[in-house]
Amino acid sequence: MAQQLEVNLVEPLQLGPVTITSRLIVGTGKYETYEIMAEALDASGAEVVTVAIRRERLLDERGRSLLDFIDTDRYTILPNTAGCFSAPDAVRVARLGREILQQLDNPGKDWVKLEVLGDKETLLPDPVGTLEACRELVADGFTVMCYTSDDPVMAVRIRDAGATSVMPAGSPIGCGRGIANHAAIAMILQMLKDRDHGGNPDYPVIIDAGVGTPSDVTIAMELGSDGVLLNTGIAHAKDPLRMAVAMKAACEAGYLGYRAGRIAKRLFATASTPWQGLISPIAGE
Amino acid sequence: MKITVNGEELTLDTPCTVAQLMRRYDLADTASAVEVNRQLVPKQQHPERALADGDTVEIVTLVGGG
What we know:
The structure holds two protein chains of two kinds. By secondary structure, chain A is an alpha/beta fold. Helix content of chain A is 37%, strand content 15%.
């Protein structure tokens, strides 16, 4: 039995050319120190970590860099286009990211976490720009992991544009409200993964953003998501290392729980203990 | 000639290639990507890509992000 469970736990997830067994993808931003980040990445069990593309610092002391603390032989790096507010900007940043990852010969060199944002306050995606950038990057040979809102119709459009994975936000980036609209995420999962709704069970849907607690991760996985991508929930926890362990366990719990098949919800109780053989009568019966 | 690198103006007295510019900033061996006038210049082209007066150069790298 234990061996059987182990097999289920490590069932791989195929994301374009990348195969992973941990369904938790974590960001590398917002950590107090690089050392804490490196420990938290390790504790999370993640095999894919997201990074951003920014200008090199030329005038001040460069000091240590992110790559000094990320083992690029161990982690597949997923560069994002965070901070881009138009399709051309996102495409430009994606190409710069590819150029860097090619130098590192990292397995993540041909993929991108596409974000085209609508505004700085909500950090919600601009749907028009997202779709435009997605099409262009797919045509340019990218494996596109596409951040989107929890709009089911938009999710279908993004898949149809050739994205390798649709990654709906549970709630706005960094807000910690978890899955704000369970029904919308459930609809996305049905429309993209259920054959009766035109989906494909192998099409990966990853919940990206808004996750604050381990239970948020578990709920995302129990809904049937293929993975969860989070950053702030670990990086800004009082104890990021402990939270990384908790998020890992939560992801596995939700994943296994969904696959195990939950019991139906009922209004009334159903006894776990047999009535037969009671030694005292039940009042009124 | 005057060029702009990551938003800062830089005056160069002698001809300069992208590779030479990267050495100037001690970035020759780091994982960076370079654009000249918004066009990506792949690393293998850095030695032959000459910079011209008025060029705008962006040098980017990986930083923490979600």
